[in-house]
Write a structure and sequence with these properties.
The protein is mostly helical. The chain has one domain (8-117): Ribosomal protein L20, C-terminal domain (c-terminal domain of poly(a) binding protein, Orthogonal Bundle), CATH 1.10.1900. It has 5 helices and no strands. The longest helix has 40 residues, at 31-70. The radius of gyration is 26 Å and the shape is rod-shaped.
Length: 118
C-alpha cells in the first residue's frame, strides 16, 4: 500500500515557515533556504547570548569612566583605588550609581582618592 506524507510534510513546512516569517527574500518561503536560515539563526542565538554579557560590561565601564572623569579621576585609577580601599562593588552597581545617584558615586570616588593617597 502506498502512503502519501502530504499532511505530515505540510505540517513540517508550515512550522518552519511560521518560524522564518519576516525573513528577507527566499529565506521565508523556500524550504531549503528557510531551513538554512533557521539553523544559522540558532547558532547566532547561542553566540549572541554570550556576546550580550560582553556588551553590557563594556557599557558599564563606559558609564563609570564618564562619571569618574566628571569627578576628576580616570576609570583605571578609580578601580585601583576602590580595591585598595577594600570596597567590593561590581561594575553593574557602580554604573547604576554613576547614572542614578551622583552623590553616592562622588563619595566612592573620594574614598578611592583617600586610599590612593595613603
Amino acid at each position: 500500500m502506498r502512503v502519501k506524507g502530504s499532511s505530515a510534510s505540510r505540517r513540517k513546512l508550515k512550522k518552519l515557515f511560521s518560524i522564518t516569517k519576516g525573513y528577507w527574500g527566499r529565506k521565508k518561503n523556500v524550504y531549503r533556504r528557510a531551513r538554512e536560515a533557521y539553523l544559522k539563526s540558532l547558532t547566532r542565538m547561542f553566540h549572541d547570548r554570550k556576546r550580550k554579557k560582553r556588551d553590557f560590561r563594556r557599557l558599564w565601564i563606559i558609564r563609570i569612566n564618564a562619571a569618574a572623569r566628571a569627578n576628576g579621576m580616570q576609570y583605571n585609577v578609580l578601580i585601583n583605588g576602590l580595591k585598595k580601599a577594600n570596597i567590593t562593588i561590581n561594575r553593574k552597581m557602580l554604573a547604576d550609581l554613576a547614572v542614578n545617584d551622583a552623590s553616592a558615586f562622588a563619595r566612592l570616588v573620594a574614598a578611592a582618592r583617600e586610599a590612593l593617597a595613603a
